[in-house]
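Appendix B. Raw example, untouched.
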Amino acid sequence: MRAIIVRHYKTVGNANNRIIGWSESPPVAGWQRDMKHVDKMLHAASIHFEAVYTSQLHRARTTGLFYAQSRGISKIRCSKALNEVNYGVLNTKSKKWVEKNIPGHKKDPDLVYPEGESFRQMQKRSVRFIKSIAEVNRDKTVLIVVHAGIIRGLICHFMGLDYESNLKRKITHRYIGDFTFEGPICIRYDELGTYSGFVKSKIIEIPFYRTELQSA
């Protein structure tokens, strides 16, 4: 399976530096610009996908529908397993407040947010889901629309990176991750859009190839 992974449109919450998580936030003015830019790059790279997967959150579903409809795909597939990390009672709080009052925020991947979950728990559920669809889409290309937290977790898992030290890597709304799977194992990774913090900080070099097909 080839999985093209992109981020949802930019929201007012993103622009105002607020925690969104499982809450919802309306799109910013001109919210389609990033999506049209990404769509143009996908067309330029001659990427044709046969299915669209998204999280259950409105911002991801709406973004997925945009790409699906531009290619004549009538149905998208949504899964809670692809939702952003659940911050629980911290959803909608300002990021500055959370950083000041929650010492382990984006420092400890095993920190369970009050009435929510940890980054590690989010990573496990999303990785499990990606592996499951890789098995049933072995010879297909799919588009997956998710969230910055999900993307960081997937990159760390499939590239074999330390999760704790990469919880804050930048993922823009023009990110395009290109993952190639052989069964449940990611054997190649590239970035086609605006580079992530992983590439800009030289944490990984692209294209990345897995040389040993061990369980990943």
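End of appendix B.
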